[in-house]
Amino acid sequence: MDRDLAEVDYVYMWADGIHLNVRLEEAKACVPVLIGVRADGSKELVALKDGYRESSESWADLMRGCARRGMRAPVLAVGDGALGFWKALTEVFPSTREQRCWVHKTANVLDSLPKSAQPGAKKAIQDIHSAEDKQHAEAALKTFVQLYGAKFPKAVKKITDDQTELLAFYDFPAEHWIHLRTTNPIESTFATVRLRTKVTRGAGSRTAALAMVFKLVESAQARWRAVNAPHLVALVRAGARFERGRLVERPEAVAA
Questions:
Q1: Which of 73, 121, 143, 239 could form a disulfide with 93 if both were Cys (CB 3.0 to 4.6 A apart)?
Q2: What's the CA gap between 162 and 81, in Å, rounded?
Q3: Sign of the torsion angle spanned by Cα atoms 217, 218, 221, 222
Q4: Domain ranges of the chain
């Protein structure tokens, strides 16, 4: 949390918070965590902090600290739509684009539908985020609205209200889509943390909880693989344009 970030460039970032039992306190500890993708395509733990729930102030405090230490604004941030993270991101790094996690969004939509409608709706949602390009995704979204909008307008609104943020990943390299449409890179690491804390029945204190999360994430980091087509990450930072997932304009062409 004290290291200089001026020499590190995180092009993509995933954000999520993990809630842990603290044996000596009634309230759960919440540790907001940021994981980034460097310009060479490698993934790295950026920062984490003892926070209060997942409030925008906890996230803003974490990101202000990163900015003070010299961190550049990421090009794209990925997270759950319910996070106070987004309000904080707009305050600290307003130029960063937003991508909502499709796993969280799908679960949220299905929870608001009757069980009989869930299998069909899940397939229709899958057709949106697994489409071959943004144009086909928008067509699949229209189909979803036609199928479920009349009977379940509130469920459909959960997707249509966030359409821009849900489809943002399509503006990036196709090789990166699998990494950018969900928070799976951070969730899979959290699964290890939850397993460990279940065995120990929670941490003894908030400080111990923070230390435990840090050590487990640091250990997991050694096993993280780089994103697909890592050479394209630097082009994303340089402002290259991608259409249907393919590079159409190199940075030098933009400058010219």
A1: 73
A2: 9
A3: negative
A4: 10-101+182-225, 103-165
pLDDT in tens, 30-67: 788 899 999 999 999 999 887 655 577 888 899 999 99
Rounded CA-CA distance 41/28 in Å is: 34
Using CA atoms, how far apart are residues 115 and 117, in angstroms rounded to an integer? 5
Q: What are the tokens at 114?
A: 């009757």
Containing 77, the helix (H) or strand (E) segment is: strand 76-79
pLDDT at 149: 96
Q: Render pLDDT for 65-96 as a digit per residue (tens, 0 to 9).
A: 999 999 999 999 999 987 789 999 999 999 99
CA distance 202 to 69: 31
- Encoded tokens for 195: 């397993």
Report the percentage of the chain scoring pLDDT > 70. Answer: 84
Contacts 24+ apart (CB under 8 A), 183-187: 183/14, 183/15, 183/16, 183/78, 183/79, 183/80, 183/101, 183/103, 183/104, 184/103, 185/14, 185/35, 185/43, 185/224, 186/14, 186/15, 186/16, 186/33, 186/35, 187/16, 187/103
Q: Is the domain covering 10-101+182-225 a CATH 3.30.420.10 domain?
A: yes
H or E element at residue 20: strand 10-20
212 sits in which H/E element: helix 206-221
Report the alpha-carbon angle 163-169-174, nearest 5.
140
